[in-house]
């Protein structure tokens, strides 16, 4: 792989995302934050969201200071109307065409399986699976309009193997993996590639937050 120069383009100029557009959910922390920086560093124009206005403003200020083209808004992905509001903003910002969708936002709550409550199940399912599915649905027209669409789900190794104290989280990631297969099959005709990335444990704020409060991401 060619080494990157300071602008994150390959030295021979072939590796670039100049002119491409991307939406990254949950882009102000952890994996999402790194993805925003990587995409923007390669020249893409990025839109992101989170639930905390102060956190979003701090990130946008830092990114703009680096010369990155990043915009964003506050959005609670547990709420269907807010997901629709997010996509309206994205459609307007990118003038109806989207090249890259990264379904990254997620939460983790660590508990023995016997201790999960109805509320635990609801919130984890809404953010980790329902929101990703819904965002993908309503992004489909503008991904198709780009004639080169890419959807990436940030899954987890927990969706592939058994791990302790994360049964509901693991179930949402397993569902995400199957959704990836189905959408890849259905949307190939629309020139939309669909993939999932399933990392193992990564040292991000999500890990510590999960031990205290699942709603902090």
UniProtKB/TrEMBL annotation:
GO terms for molecular function: oxidoreductase activity, acting on the CH-OH group of donors, NAD or NADP as acceptor. Pfam families: adh_short. It comes from the Eukaryota. Keywords: NADP, Oxidoreductase. InterPro entries: NAD(P)-bd_dom_sf, Sc_DH/Rdtase_CS, SDR_fam, TR. PANTHER family: TROPINONE REDUCTASE, TROPINONE REDUCTASE 1. Belongs to the short-chain dehydrogenases/reductases (SDR) family. This is Tropinone reductase I. It comes from Solanum stoloniferum.
